[in-house]
Structure formats: structure tokens, C-alpha cells
Model the fold of this input.
Amino acid sequence: MITPKFKQPSYKSRQILVRSDSLEDKQYLAFPISLRISNYEILISFKRGYKHARDKESDWQVIRFNPITTEVSPPVTITERRGVIHENGEWVEYDDATIDLFIDVQTPGTSQREGLISYRSSDHGHSWQPRGKLGLIDGVEYGYCFQGLVDGPKILLLVMTFEYLAGGKREVHVVGSDDGGKSFNFVRNLSTEFGDIPINETNMIRRGDGYLVVTRGYDDMGRIHEVDSNLKLIREKNLTETYDFMKKYISRPRIFEG
Done:
């Protein structure tokens, strides 16, 4: 007798959360980021403007999504300043459920950064309070936050400075906080640590006693770097040179652990 084998069905669904063609103006939506705050609620925020780069103005908006009921709240604009570009947001959720949202602010019609700002929520994203600029950290001002990583009592931010901001160089740094994001200090210059390679967008995860860091290079190379708990380089691999399918770099790379 042959016992029939049954395959477990798989399901796939798709839902449009915000339709750009239903908006009266600022119909260019970009750079969405999500943060799950419970089993039934996900915060999603995004840029709302006119075009990808060198925009004339853009806001930063937040919606709430219930993955169980599929309900979506109306978009809420959290940025209050007009006439600038709000772009490239990144969440950080602390152990006490406080959420910081770091946003890259750019001068209209250009891609020149004005300095990283943040908004804070203490009620699971229902309201947001402007905190202003992150400000100088050991004499350096940062314009772009790639990632916020909470690692036990430590909070790490992957950030980038630019040659026209205080600090005078285009580099990727890690800054850290031991007081719940109230203040930050310089931790490591990854551009220098990785051999003065010209890197931009960067992401990392905790791995063993250290971290794995993936970088996008201005030299059209994608790399992965293993570092110790102090973010000192152990070894690295050039992914573009190693794998044929990597024709170039990965833009805005993300690294995940399954």
C-alpha cells in the first residue's frame, strides 16, 4: 500500500499600504523602514516628496499597520520644518520601549547634508517630539545614520560624516551610548579600520563575540568584514571579486541572521 504524501500549502499575500496616486501632492514615496512594536502592530515610516534625489522638499511620515487585521492608519507627518528634504530615516528602539527616529536632512535642490536630527516617541509611536540635531560628537557632525543597534546596555549607531560638515572627511563611523541614547561618544572609524577604503552605506549584526559588517564601496565593491567586540578588524572578504553574480556593489546593503 502506498501512503500518499501531502505537501503543506504555502500562502503569499500582497497589500498596498499607501497609494502614491491617491495623494494630492508629494506623490514620490521612498525609503520605507519598519519596526515591529507588538504582535499586532508595525510602525512604517517613509519619505514623502517629489523625486528621489535633489528634491525641492520632502516630509517624513509614519503609518501603523496591523498584520492580523491588515488595517492601515492614515499617514501622519512627524517632521515640522518646511522647505528642506527629510530622507533616509532609521529607527532605534531602546529596552524601555522608547523609540528614536534619526533622519537625514538635506538642502533643497542638492544632496548636501545639514546634520543628522532625531525625533523621539515614548508612547509606542503615537506621538513624536523633535530632539533637534544629534550635534557634535568629539568634534564631528554626522549627516546620515545607516543603522541603530541595541546590544545589551550599549547602543551603537552606524553613521557617516561628510567633508563639508565638522570633522572634514567623508567616512563611516560607529558612535555609542551607555545612557539610553541621552548622549553619544565616538567608538570606531570603520573607514580607517578597514584599510582606508572609500565606503558609504553600511550595516552590521551581532555575531559570536563580535560583529559582521557589510559595506558598499565608492570603488564599486561590496565587502563583508568580521570584527571583534571592540570593532577591530579580524578578517574580511571582497564579495564582488569572489562571486561572479556580484557584478558591482549592493546598494543600501542589509545583513540578516536566520
The radius of gyration is 20 Å.
